[in-house]
Amino acid sequence: MHEVSSAEFWANRYETGDAPWDYGQACPVFVTFLDSQRAPPTGTVAFPGCGKGHDLRLFLERGYDATGFDFAIDSDDLPIERLDIFELGARYPDHFDMIVEYTCYCAIDPARRGEYAASLRAALKPGGLLVALLFPMGERPDGPPFGIDESEISGVLAVGMDVLSVEIPPNSFEERQDRERLVLARKQELSS
Description:
By secondary structure, this protein is α/β, with parallel strands linked by helices. The protein has helices spanning 7-15, 28-35, 54-61, 88-91, 113-123, 152-157; strands at 44-48, 65-70, 80-82, 96-102, 124-134, 161-167, 181-187. Strands 3-2-1-4-5-7-6 form a seven-stranded mixed beta sheet. The longest helix is centred in the middle third of the chain and has 11 residues, at 113-123. 35% of the residues are buried.
C-alpha cells in the first residue's frame, strides 16, 4: 500500500504543519465560479478529501447542502464525515447533485485513480455535475501531489460523463497559475 493511502500519513502532515496545499481560505477559482452565470442551482454537494473544509464552508455560505468527506480530519463546526473517499459511491449511491474535486485526485496513489473516479460517478445523481479543479497538470511522478496528464480528464476522471468544459482558470492561487484545469462534467442520464 502506498503511504498516501493511509489516514495516518495525512493526519501527521496536518498535525506537523506540513500541509502546503492548505491556503487557509477558499480557492479563488471556486469563488469566481459561484459568482458567475455558470453557478449551479443549490443542491447536495460532496467534497471528497476536503481537508479543513475551506471550500466546503464557501459552498455552505452560498446556500448549498454541502458535506465534506475526509479520513484524516475532524471538524466541530463543519459537516465533515470521516470516510475513505473510495467508499463514497457505495455509501451514497446516486445521491449528490454535485461533487467538487480539488487536490484529492492528485493526492491519491495514481494506480487508484480509476477506482476513485468510479466512486465519484457512483455518488453523483444521473445528470449530476462534477466540478474538478485539477492540479498539477503535467508530469510529476514523485508526489504527492502526483502530476496529471491532460488525457486523464476524459480517459479516467470523466469516463461515463459528458465533459462540458476544460479551461485554465485565470485566478488560481499564484503558485498554481497555469498549472490547474477547471473541468465541468455531467454524469450521463439513465436511458429509459
